[in-house]
Every structure is written in structure tokens, then in C-alpha cells.
């Protein structure tokens, strides 16, 4: 008798991961060109740089002319590879942190927020190496065919800089802050608003 709820829980979790991963894949494919452009603007040095972009339209035009259509999809493999484990970690750890916080006398709102913070920090540790590789590939202005592969570039980083905060985990502090705060607000706001909405019977 006790095995059935566990099977149902695993099945439901699997459905959520597959559905969430599929939605994430579509989102990545649609939004990645903008992510490439965003990264280029963030790393360009100054307006006097001959390779700098003057506007959003100019960036799209230059990338297309110099790097082709696939230039907008540089670095797309790392976020695709990270999407399913990221979502699995996000929701699984949220539930686990929420259970742990059940042993402490906290309000539901605070419980959801703290559990969300914990899930975001855990998620950040998982996704940060993928982010480092993605940004490095996006910053490469060679044609798509000339740039290194995802695994090849990851190996380059590990060989030169290692696994630490100067290598494959560069920028981890900022990623922890971003994912931690986002998930804290997301889960806290979502569950509290959800509980305020009356259920039709």
C-alpha cells in the first residue's frame, strides 16, 4: 500500500520535469539570440571600439553579416544541457528545504521564501559552470564553424584556470545572488498568492 503513493510521487515529479524541461527548451531556442546580443553588449569595452555595437538593431545586423545566422545561437548547448537538471534541482530541493523548515516554527510565507532561497542557491551551484561556458562561446566573434565545441571550450577553461572561482566557477557569487533572490521571491510570491485565491467547488 505504501509503495503506491511513492510511485505516484515519482510519476508526478517526472511529468513536471519533462513538461518544465520542454517548456525551457522552447524558451531557450526562442530567446537565445537576445541572450547573445545581451552578452555582447555587456562585454564590449567602449563606444570607440571599432567592433562595438551602436544599437540593438546594429548588433543584430553586424552579427548576421559577420557570423551568419548561427552566430545568434552560439553557446546554446550549455543552457540546453543544464535546463532539465536545473529545473529538477529547483523544484526537488525546494520541497526538501520546505520539509526541513517544517520542524521550525515559521509562518508559511517565510517558509516558502527561505525554501526558495535555498533551492536557488543550490540551483546556482549546478548551473554556474554551464553559464561560464555559454558566455565564453557567446563572446567569440568567429563564425559558428570556427568556434570551439562546447566540450572543447570547457576543457580549455579547466586546463587554464581550473575548476575554482577563477575557472569553471567564475562568477559563482553573482550567480548565487541572482538565483537565490529570484527563487526566494518566485516561490514566496507564487505560493502565497496561490493560497489567497479561492478554489471553486
TrEMBL record:
Keywords tagged on the record: Membrane, Mitochondrion, Mitochondrion inner membrane, Repeat, Transmembrane, Transmembrane helix, Transport
Membrane topology: Multi-pass membrane protein
Gene Ontology cellular-component annotations: mitochondrial inner membrane
Subcellular location: Mitochondrion inner membrane
Catalytic activity: 2-oxoadipate(in) + 2-oxoglutarate(out) = 2-oxoadipate(out) + 2-oxoglutarate(in); glutarate(in) + 2-oxoglutarate(out) = glutarate(out) + 2-oxoglutarate(in); hexanedioate(in) + 2-oxoglutarate(out) = hexanedioate(out) + 2-oxoglutarate(in); heptanedioate(in) + 2-oxoglutarate(out) = heptanedioate(out) + 2-oxoglutarate(in)
This protein's record includes keyword Transmembrane: yes
Entry-linked InterPro entries: MCP_dom_sf, MCP_transmembrane, Mito_2-oxodicarb_carrier
Solcar repeats, residue ranges: 11-100, 107-196
Function statement: Transports dicarboxylates across the inner membranes of mitochondria by a counter-exchange mechanism. Can transport 2-oxoadipate (2-oxohexanedioate), 2-oxoglutarate, adipate (hexanedioate), glutarate, and to a lesser extent, pimelate (heptanedioate), 2-oxopimelate (2-oxoheptanedioate), 2-aminoadipate (2-aminohexanedioate), oxaloacetate, and citrate.
Family under the similarity heading: Belongs to the mitochondrial carrier (TC 2.A.29) family.
Protein name: Mitochondrial 2-oxodicarboxylate carrier
Gene source species: Nomascus leucogenys (Northern white-cheeked gibbon)
Amino acid at each position: 500500500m505504501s509503495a503506491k503513493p511513492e510511485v505516484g510521487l515519482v510519476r508526478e515529479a517526472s511529468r513536471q520535469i519533462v513538461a518544465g524541461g520542454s517548456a525551457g527548451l522552447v524558451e531557450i531556442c526562442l530567446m537565445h539570440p537576445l541572450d547573445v546580443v545581451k552578452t555582447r553588449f555587456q562585454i564590449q569595452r567602449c563606444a570607440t571600439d571599432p567592433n562595438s555595437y551602436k544599437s540593438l538593431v546594429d548588433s543584430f545586423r553586424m552579427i548576421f553579416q559577420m557570423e551568419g545566422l548561427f552566430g545568434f545561437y552560439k553557446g546554446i548547448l550549455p543552457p540546453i544541457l543544464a535546463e532539465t537538471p536545473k529545473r529538477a534541482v529547483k523544484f526537488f530541493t525546494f520541497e526538501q528545504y520546505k520539509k526541513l523548515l517544517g520542524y521550525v516554527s515559521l509562518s508559511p510565507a517565510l517558509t516558502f521564501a527561505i525554501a526558495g532561497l535555498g533551492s536557488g542557491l543550490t540551483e546556482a551551484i549546478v548551473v554556474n559552470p554551464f553559464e561560464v561556458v555559454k558566455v565564453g562561446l557567446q563572446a567569440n566573434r568567429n563564425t559558428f564553424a570556427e568556434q570551439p565545441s562546447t566540450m572543447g571550450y570547457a576543457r580549455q577553461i579547466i586546463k587554464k584556470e581550473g575548476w575554482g572561482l577563477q575557472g569553471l566557477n567564475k562568477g559563482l557569487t553573482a550567480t548565487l545572488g541572482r538565483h537565490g533572490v529570484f527563487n526566494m521571491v518566485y516561490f514566496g510570491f507564487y505560493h502565497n498568492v496561490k493560497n489567497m485565491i479561492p478554489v471553486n467547488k
